[in-house]
Write a structure and sequence with these properties.
Largest sheet: 3 strands, antiparallel
Strand content: 5-15%
Shape: elongated
Number of strands: 3
Oligomer: single chain
Amino acid sequence: MEWTEEEKARAIVSSQNVFSDKNYTPKQPASTYTPPATHRIAQAPQQTQQRQTKQVSRERTSKWIKSWNGGSNYLAEWLSVNNYIDSTSVCANHRRGSIDYRECRKAAKQHFHEQCRTWRARYDSNRKTHSDRMKTRYCSAASSFNPMG
């Protein structure tokens, strides 16, 4: 097959990678979304409510605790969520950043250590569920609570 110069030029031009609205056809998507049937949509809220029925236990505690250096006492408040002390809530009853707030948080760290020792000894002697819960609460706070953060 012999091509004329004009045909060769057209073949070269058409083989170049130039995309325009005239020569480009988009491919079909590799995957498509099929919306759920109407009867499945009606059931969805019920299923969501069933998943959200997990109980969240919240307990607020207020204690007068001794200052870390023995100087004074601070009223410390904190929130326990599912038996773990929420570190951001410790001493939230004081103005954040104030001296009382910082001193209260230092005292709380020491208080958590003391309570951990007390509840660990109590659980070792009586093996009661309540003692185990309190040991878990205070020992986890003693190890993870950072008064500066």
